Target: Exosortase F system-associated protein
Amino acid sequence: MIKTIKIFGIIIFILGLILVRKYESSLFYDPFLEFFKKSNFNHLSPPNFHTIRLFISLSLRYSLNLILSLLIIYLWFGDKKISVFSFYIFTIGFAIFCALYFVSIYTNFSLGYMPTFYIRRILIQPIFLLILIPAIYYHKHLKKTNSPNYSR
Model:
């Protein structure tokens, strides 16, 4: 019964991530959303944007994805330490990639159009969730195989 509830919860939170993506244009301010959808964006001038508004919107979206992702990780693994570790990874990732993103768009895409596009992807999509789940499984597997109680 508990396993069924966990699976149902994970599905609900994944649907939450899908809904964030589906309604991104109406929920969040992001002038780069349409810009990067154009196939020739690397030949276009970047759109005008309001820095504070973009940062707040990006932070809200990232926070929403963070909360849903942490809930998925907690239900999936049932370990508070893993959830706290994941929170730190998400937070450090946000600080690094957000700084890179704003440096790039403020310096007229000095990092290049494609790197900026992918940095933005990391910020607006739950990429860290997709990286952390297999990494946590791998870590648990290593712990299990290196344990003195593990019999071969």
